[in-house]
Structures are given as structure tokens and as C-alpha cells.
Recover the amino acids of this structure.
């Protein structure tokens, strides 16, 4: 889960996996994905019990909104798995 | 208290908040023994609570074979290439490039800048945020990349 100068730089990275060609995300989308409602409560006293458990559903919803609905992004098994 | 499973969720909430607050205030995670008195428990109980926290929050981890908190996202105890600067002071590290965009929520009302060297070319990249908004991206072509998928297909945690 890294930041690169551009997509081309990521593809030239020695550890780049061909399977991750769909793993790019624009910075504004990334800030949105990591800025869902639960994230805004990380300084709350009950964050771990109340807010953290909401993260997975928030992430799925946000990814669907930006069109990232593949198993790679949603964390579901690939059809061939 | 004998097992991680028996820990009261109110106590794991308190420890999670203490660890996060220590990271925000000092840039480093505390040791469980440092937290014991504040939580009103023994050091041994504090250790059990720490592991209960990490069971509930598995995206953080201790250094292998130790009880030292290495990663507690969005921040990291172990230095990473994601150097975080707030109020002109660089004393924080983000867990990864994705979590770097979440650090902003730990510093409300502050500009949070992440400086990182591109893993391909080593060129400096900078991303600045204020209350969740991107305020500066240099160069503008900076992009996020997930090398392993989320979930079951993910790779070893520190190397995603």
C-alpha cells in the first residue's frame, strides 16, 4: 500500500506484481477511502468498540461508489480460487 | 485476568486510546508497562490487555517475538518511508502510503504533510492534508498502489 510518483513508476518498481495492475487508486479516492465516517472518530474514547467495527462495511460501500468492485479490492475470493 | 478473551471491552477501548494518544503526542508507541498505572492494572494485566487490543485491531502488530508495538495504524512505531510532519516537526511515521492519508484525522485543524521517497526512482513526493482535504500534492501525478488485494489474497502485512 504505497505511494508512487506515477503509475509508470509503480510498474517499474522491482516488487510490482502483474496481478496488481488493477491496484491503482487516485489520491482523492484514496483520501476518501481512508476518510470514511469511522476514521473521523479515531480520537474518541470508544473508537475501538464503537467505530472500528464499522470500517469494513464503509470500505466496501466506498469502493463500490468509485467502481472498485473486484475481488482484488473487496477482499473476496477470486472466482477461480 | 487470565486470558485475552476475558478482557473487558471498556478496557481495550481505554488502552487503544492511550496508545493512540501517546503516538500523537510523542511520535512513539508506549510499552505496556508504561500504561499499567494509568489503566489501574498490573503490568502483567496490561500486557494481556495489549494483546486483546491487537486481537480486536489486527491491522496493528507487535514486533515478532516481542511485546513492542511496531505498528498501530494509521501511525507506526517502527520508522517507515512515510515521514509525517505537523507544525513543522517531523516525529511521526505512517504505517503505509494508504494510512498516510488517514493521519489527518489524528490532528484536527492542523496541516499534516507526508514526505516519501518513490520506491522506484527515489524522488521526493509530498502530500499535505488538512481535516481530510488534500491541500498539496507534489508532484500532482502521485498515485496510490495496492500490490496485493485486500482480504484473503493479501500478502505479508508489512509488505502490502
Amino acid at each position: 500500500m504505497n505511494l508512487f510518483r506515477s503509475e509508470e513508476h509503480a510498474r517499474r518498481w522491482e516488487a510490482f506484481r502483474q496481478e496488481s495492475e488493477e491496484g491503482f487508486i487516485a489520491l482523492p479516492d484514496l483520501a476518501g477511502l481512508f476518510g470514511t465516517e469511522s476514521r473521523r472518530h479515531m480520537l474518541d474514547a470508544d473508537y475501538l468498540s464503537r467505530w472500528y467495527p464499522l470500517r469494513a462495511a464503509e470500505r466496501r460501500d466506498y469502493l463500490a461508489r468509485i467502481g472498485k468492485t473486484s475481488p482484488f479490492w473487496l477482499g473476496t475470493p477470486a472466482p477461480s480460487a | 485476568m487470565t486470558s485475552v478473551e476475558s478482557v473487558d471491552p471498556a478496557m481495550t477501548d481505554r488502552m487503544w486510546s492511550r496508545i493512540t494518544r501517546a503516538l500523537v503526542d510523542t511520535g512513539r508507541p508506549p510499552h505496556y508497562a508504561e500504561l499499567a498505572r494509568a489503566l489501574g492494572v498490573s503490568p502483567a494485566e496490561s500486557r494481556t490487555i495489549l494483546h486483546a487490543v491487537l486481537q480486536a485491531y489486527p491491522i496493528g502488530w507487535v514486533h515478532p517475538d516481542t511485546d513492542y508495538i511496531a505498528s498501530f495504524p494509521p501511525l507506526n512505531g517502527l520508522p517507515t518511508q512515510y515521514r509525517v510532519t505537523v507544525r513543522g516537526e517531523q516525529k511521526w511515521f505512517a504505517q503505509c502510503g494508504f494510512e498516510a492519508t488517514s493521519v489527518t484525522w489524528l490532528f484536527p485543524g492542523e496541516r499534516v504533510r507526508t514526505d516519501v521517497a518513490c520506491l522506484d526512482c527515489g524522488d521526493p513526493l509530498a502530500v499535505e492534508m488538512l481535516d481530510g482535504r488534500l491541500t498539496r500534492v507534489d508532484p500532482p501525478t502521485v498515485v496510490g498502489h495496492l500490490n496485493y488485494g485486500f482480504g484473503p489474497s493479501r500478502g505479508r502485512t508489512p509488505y502490502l
